[in-house]
Amino acid sequence: MGYNYLEGKIPEEIGKLKSLSGFAIGANKLSGELPSSLYNLSSLAIFFAAENQFHGSLPSDMFSNLISLQEIGIGGNQISGPIPTSISNASSLQLFDIGYCSFVGKVSNLGNLKDLYWLNLNYNHLGSNSALDLDFITSLVNCTELESLVLSSNNFGGVLPNSIGNLSAQLTEISLDFNQIHGTIPETICNNTNLIDLDLEYNHFTGFIPNSFGKFQKMQLLGLSANNLMVESPNERMNMADVTRELNLTKDVFLQD
């Protein structure tokens, strides 16, 4: 039912469809709050409601009964409040996309989502520019299928933990741009040798760009501008022969004598 001109609200009666496994209503003009009966559909595996006009917050126990849920995409709505802590119960979750909403607060431990390959939290109000904002990244070490980690345009502060280098060998994208992250870029990030896209722009990173960035032989987009970074060994940087789309080092990056 996606990409139509459907209007109105999702009726509570949706909860009577006990065998429903997929519900896709993205890109419509639906509004109101998501009905609470939806969260009792234990057979529901796929739920897409992105790009509508839904509002309200999600109950903290939302995922308690959604034991079959594999993919959920509700981005591009006006949904607010914290991410439900019960998300750890959705152990079959593979895709979690809540970009372009108004979620706030701390991101809880996601380590139980071992099959997660896509995590998109961009363009929300998550984090509080505090030291513990990025602690949840360490829990992602358990997500051995993770391919895409998109946290752009939030309010994440603190330093980037060394565990950023212990993530899935499948990881191809890390987007942390437009946050409040400070400190140095950890050398461990270079362990993610399959990265194609690394975007750290518009933060408060300081210190040297790690020489080991030369490990990124598959990199196509590297965004480091609008920080306070220094280049210690420009020759090492130039060893990234496959950077073809964008090497954005031009702003607030200078050579160290």
TrEMBL record:
SUPFAM superfamilies: L domain-like. Signal peptide: none annotated. Residues 9-225 form the Disease resistance R13L4/SHOC-2-like LRR domain. It is found in: Membrane. GO terms for cellular component: membrane. Keywords: Glycoprotein, Leucine-rich repeat, Membrane, Repeat, Signal. Its main location: membrane. This is Disease resistance R13L4/SHOC-2-like LRR domain-containing protein.
